[in-house]
Amino acid sequence: MDGWALLVSVLAFVVSGTAMVIAWWQLVLQRDAAGGRGIIFEVHRPIHREDRIRGELVVSDDYFVLVNLAGNDLYEVAIHLERDGQQLEFGDAGYLDETPETLRRLTCEDEPLTWEFNLRADDAKDLWCVLSWAAPYGPGLRTDAVRRPLAPPHELERWRWFRSFRLIQWVEEWGARRRWRWARRVLSRPHRVGEWRRVPGRDLKPGQSPINSRPLSAKDRPR
């Protein structure tokens, strides 16, 4: 009888553990579905210009930004330029007066969001184009974003929130409410809750895609 009880207990533990893993995986999939999947975000520099203005050589480039969706809808969609993690303001080198308006909603059936502008090469060399949107997280919202540099090779990066960011915020808020000065000074000071990370990309070779599925040649096969 004790053996049967032990077996039932083990099975119950396995079933409950499996249910927790499935629930966690569904939560991860739901979070990813509400995140950056299905977003086409491109930055192109199609035209390079060299003009002489009052005898001075001015080098500039035309830029073309494209945002299109192939999946979930996005809300509060915005595009801006930033340098060293700060959005450009009036008076900053590379600041543009006209930027795309924030879209309350962007769907895969809408026309692509585009932005064309011209910048001097010296002003654009350290600028990033940032695409941001509001994403549901738990009982509230948080901002998700991707970005590309204006300078080639335009590698894509995505903002990743730390898993402990809610705990960090709770500690900061808790410390700010303490009467002890040392607690407010140490615990309530802001800490990083996320960082930019490069999105790795790997191009498919001929024969690896349903669009081009011819047999791999000898030189394309792994050795």
Task: Explain what this protein looks like in three dimensions.
Residues 198-223 are annotated as: Disordered. It is a single chain. With 223 residues, the chain is of the alpha+beta class. It has two domains: 35-161; 162-201, no CATH class. The chain contains four helices and ten strands, in the order αββββββαβββααβ. The protein has helices spanning 2-33, 121-124, 165-176, 181-187; strands at residues 39-53, 56-69, 74-83, 86-87, 103-106, 113-120, 128-137, 140-149, 157-161, 194-198. Strands 3, 4, 5, 7, 8, 9 and 10 form a seven-stranded antiparallel beta sheet that branches. Strands 1-2-6 form a three-stranded antiparallel beta sheet. Helix 3 (165-176) runs antiparallel to helix 4 (181-187). The N and C termini lie far apart (58 Å). Residues 23-35 have low confidence and may be disordered.
Which keywords apply here?
223 residues, alpha+beta, seven-stranded antiparallel sheet, three-stranded antiparallel sheet, 4 helices, 37% strand, extended
Structural topology:
Blueprint: H1 2-33, E1 39-53, E2 56-69, E3 74-83, E4 86-87, E5 103-106, E6 113-120, H2 121-124, E7 128-137, E8 140-149, E9 157-161, H3 165-176, H4 181-187, E10 194-198
Region (Disordered): 198-223
What separation lies between the terminal Cα atoms?
58 Å
Order of helices and strands: HEEEEEEHEEEHHE
Overall number of strands: 10
**Shape label:** extended
Low-confidence stretches: 23-35
Portion of residues in beta strands equals: 35-45%
Q: How many helices in DSSP terms?
A: 4
Region (Disordered): 198-223
